[in-house]
Design brief:
About 15% of the residues lie in helices and about 40% in strands. The longest helix has 14 residues, at about 135-145. By secondary structure, it is of the alpha+beta class.
C-alpha cells in the first residue's frame, strides 16, 4: 500500500487571505481556501521527506464574509550582509529604515472562516527502509489529535493563525455552507520541478458547499 487512508481535519480562524496572484499591489483573497493552503496546513502538522500530501476535498462550513483592511507595510526586504560587510571592508548600514520604506496598502480578506480538509498522503522515493504508511498514519493521528505542529499553521498569511481539530473516522459529517458557485480559475499549487517555481491552476466549482479535487484538471 503506497497511500494512506483519507483523513479529515477541521480548520477555522478569524481571518484568512488566499491571495489572488493577478492582484499585484493590493492583497485580495479568493472566495475559499486554495488546495496549496490546505496542504501547507497539513505539512505544518506533519511533514517528512518520505510523504507527500494530496488534497481530496475541501468543505466550506461558514458563509463567505469579507473584511476590508488598510495597513502599513514595508516595500522591500532588509539588506543582507555581503562579503565586504563580513570582512569589515564596508560600513554601509544593514537592515532598513521602516519610516522611509513604509507603504500603506489595502487588503480584502475573508472573515470568520471554517473548513474541513479531506486529504491523504502517499509515500515518496525518499522513504527509507523503516518508513511505512501505517507509521505515518499513526504519527499524524497522534499529532493532530493533540494539537501538535512544527509551526503554527496559517490561512495564507502568517498573521492569520489556524485552529485545527482532528475528525475521527467514525465521526458524523459536519454541515456545509450548502451553496453552489462557480469560483473560476484558482491556484492549485506550485510546481517546483523546474529551475523556477511555476503556478498550476484549475477551474474551481463549489457544489453544495463542497469543492471536489479528486478529478481536478490542472493547467500550468
Amino acid at each position: 500500500m503506497n497511500k494512506s487512508n483519507p483523513f479529515r481535519i477541521k480548520v477555522s480562524g478569524e481571518n484568512a487571505c488566499f491571495t489572488r496572484p493577478e492582484m499585484k499591489v493590493e492583497r485580495v483573497s479568493y472566495d475559499v481556501m486554495t488546495p496549496s493552503a490546505a496542504r501547507g496546513i497539513l505539512e505544518a502538522i506533519l511533514w517528512k521527506p518520505a510523504i507527500q500530501w494530496n488534497i481530496l476535498q475541501i468543505d466550506v462550513l461558514n458563509p463567505i464574509k469579507w473584511e476590508s483592511v488598510r495597513r502599513n507595510e514595508v516595500g522591500k526586504k532588509a539588506t543582507k550582509p555581503s562579503a565586504a560587510h563580513l570582512s569589515g571592508e564596508s560600513d554601509k548600514p544593514l537592515g532598513l529604515f521602516v519610516e522611509k520604506e513604509r507603504q500603506q496598502r489595502a487588503g480584502l480578506f475573508l472573515r470568520d472562516v471554517s473548513y474541513v480538509i479531506h486529504a491523504e498522503f502517499e509515500m515518496t522515493p525518499k522513504a527509507g527502509a523503516d518508513d511505512s504508511v501505517t507509521k505515518f498514519e499513526q504519527m499524524f493521528i497522534r499529532r493532530a489529535s493533540k494539537g501538535a505542529c512544527f509551526h503554527r499553521p496559517y490561512f495564507g498569511c502568517r498573521e492569520f493563525p489556524v485552529d485545527f481539530e482532528f475528525i475521527p473516522k467514525d465521526a458524523e459529517k459536519l454541515p456545509t455552507l450548502g451553496k453552489t458557485k462557480d469560483l473560476g480559475w484558482m491556484l492549485y499549487d506550485m510546481d517546483y520541478r523546474g529551475k523556477e517555481p511555476m503556478p498550476k491552476f484549475f477551474h474551481a466549482q463549489m457544489n453544495d458547499g463542497i469543492i471536489d479535487l479528486r478529478n481536478a484538471e490542472v493547467h500550468s
